[in-house]
């Protein structure tokens, strides 16, 4: 065992315990030993990490991560994806099932979990598919997958389109107690849409996805959750109407939770112009337009939708931040907008992006940290996401005021696909500890 | 109707337009023969002027009015070349133009080929839909491979909006967008403006009515840019399912950059009132299957241009169509080949416009950067 660690002098924010004070955090034997009443009480013999002027919080938890392995190792591996997660302040991540083979069987799930333990820098949990090959036809063996360790079921980018299959999944999954996570987007309305429907899509001549593609399926799934009593989790909520639908469902006491991504709280469809969110002068496009790194599903929405998602996060309608980290190879994005793969490599920029509404005054830092720690831990039903004594020593040290310029070539992720390249973010992960070991230090290579 | 603007008074016809409809189909201005080296009065700036700075022609959104006027003027000179007995100049000798079409096209590809050849360039035509793409080569590698063989201008048509922007960001050769998805078709717009100007004189203040599928039309998008730059009044009319966002019912609160200032009229009869130019767009048969239209019969009934409807426009209004036409659907045969139609002239003018565009881009590449 390595030396005990004292993280001293920082503002400790642990929403699960209601802690928000200057204190030292003591870590020993891979678990949290204590959060002191006041700073300056680090015992002798501890390695000191000086967090004066910084924020100390539980390590972030991401319930929606694409690690791509097995099968798509040219995009990401469990080793690179977990290293990127550490750089983003995440100490627990949940591997989505759209691998090759899919995580629709126990042996693939077990392989992912074992590889995570052997090669991962942080904790890797797994999400199973809802249906075989995520094809939306036959349910997976949910009980067996639950025994293998999955934390929920999702067909990932494939919405469970058939309402009856969704109904059966919400009913049958109750043998496991685990949630059905749905990507809510009605395919017949989304059609061949490439980006948010609206004036910008019309300007660019790109087929648009109306917000209602999301609303329709969110409303459908809420109705089915009510019918079945099943546990529904809505992935990457992104539109005002869908946020309102979830708010009403929660008011009625349904078992519905929801997540939002860092990009849907910080950037809009205007980014497709390739000008960092600006609109071109006089509407004249240049060769930076059609930035394929903005192509993501659900698409980047309007300013009003971003406001609504932030409001939903602030009032708890949206339970948590989940990254939907989606690394791709360069060739997946070096093509036309229509050919480009969906997704943003964002786990290393997640905190900086989520700080956009915090600096704008529409979301508090305490609430943001709650949505990235205590809330996903509750969702997982695991003793994580807090600095309670005895819990794993998963800690992140943050500098909310530090400005940095996004340089994808410096990403630990294999996926360099981000529309934020060259953008300045305010809010930085300084140090990440997993089980009492430093796994990331900004600007310092960690073995 | 709330969305309709008041009809303007019929503008005075420009000089040179007689009541004799035959005169309206004359294709080129009087082209006096001249000896080599002999200066002509009012010679269009075919070999000079604003050229030299523009790298690509991707849409008309980044053109100034002056730049468009320069190209139209230059096309007059090109039309003079086309009217000669020997249609060949050495202007672009030693230049290589590659047409790379990922969609089938006859008129646009041949038009560019003819334009390049008349100017003396070497023109290579590649139909990519069936070759490298089917072998799995990416668009980027395809164009890089072709550029490595030394080409000056890449004329490109692609079914995906924005494809030429992507290519232009990756290669050094000049890129001309010959149609990208449902986005833009700038040389079509230039030839439309040129055809209008030859008949109507100054386009500013003229009422241009575009009928049909605006949503999926790259021609309409580029035409609207060009017409707005030139100061025309643009009115559009089409099925609500085929109007673009910002013009479609329920979306009027958002003004689209591509359709700013465009008036939408619900009934075609009203849209045609007082129009100086009537442009019928091609209706795609697949719009029936995608749920945008019940069928072509009803489309024709509601929006088809026939002689009764054309009579609602200004006397002698021009009838245009980007082609290829579905005669009997969006346009009836009698008007399509009638006195007011300038549809074949659009095709002829397309060669002159593309000569002007190719010349402009090659002058830039010759001038060095």
Features:
heterodimer, A: 447 residues, alpha/beta, Urease, subunit C, domain 1, TIM Barrel, 8-stranded mixed beta sheet, 8-stranded parallel beta sheet, 12 helices, 22% strand, B: 369 residues, Rossmann fold, 2 domains, 5-stranded parallel beta sheet, 4-stranded parallel beta sheet, 9 strands, globular, disordered N terminus
Q: Helix content range of the residues of chain B, please?
A: 25-40%
What is the CATH superfamily of the largest domain in chain A? Metal-dependent hydrolases
Number of domains of chain A: 2
Radius of gyration of chain B: 20 Å
Task: Explain what you see.
The complex is a heterodimer of chains A (447) and B (369). Chain A has twelve helices and 18 strands. Chain A folds into two domains: 5-55 and 393-441, Urease, subunit C, domain 1 (Roll), CATH 2.30.40; 59-380, Metal-dependent hydrolases (TIM Barrel, Alpha-Beta Barrel), CATH 3.20.20. The longest helix of chain A is centred in the middle third of the chain and has 17 residues, at 212-228. With 447 residues, chain A is an alpha/beta fold. In chain A, helix 8 (240-251) links the parallel strand 13 and strand 14 (256-260). Helices cover 26% and strands 22% of the residues of chain A. In chain A, strands 1, 2, 3, 4, 5, 16, 17 and 18 form an eight-stranded mixed beta sheet that branches. In chain A, strands 6-7-8-9-10-13-14-15 form an eight-stranded parallel beta sheet, sandwiched between helices. In chain A, strands 11-12 form a two-stranded parallel sheet. In chain A, helix 2 runs parallel beside helix 3, helix 4 (163-172) crosses helix 7 (212-228) and helix 7 packs parallel to helix 8. Chain A starts with a strand and ends in a 6-residue tail after the last strand. The model of chain A has no long low-confidence stretch (mean pLDDT 96). Chain B is α/β, with parallel strands linked by helices. Chain B folds into two domains: 53-184 and 349-367, 3-Layer(aba) Sandwich (Rossmann fold), CATH 3.40.50.1370; 187-346, Rossmann fold. In chain B, 32% of the residues lie in helices and 12% in strands. Chain B has eleven helices and nine strands. In chain B, helix 6 (218-229) links the parallel strand 5 (207-211) and strand 6. In chain B, helix 1 (65-82) packs across helix 5. Mean pLDDT of chain B is 85; it is low at 1-51. The interface between A and B is medium-sized, with 31 and 35 residues.
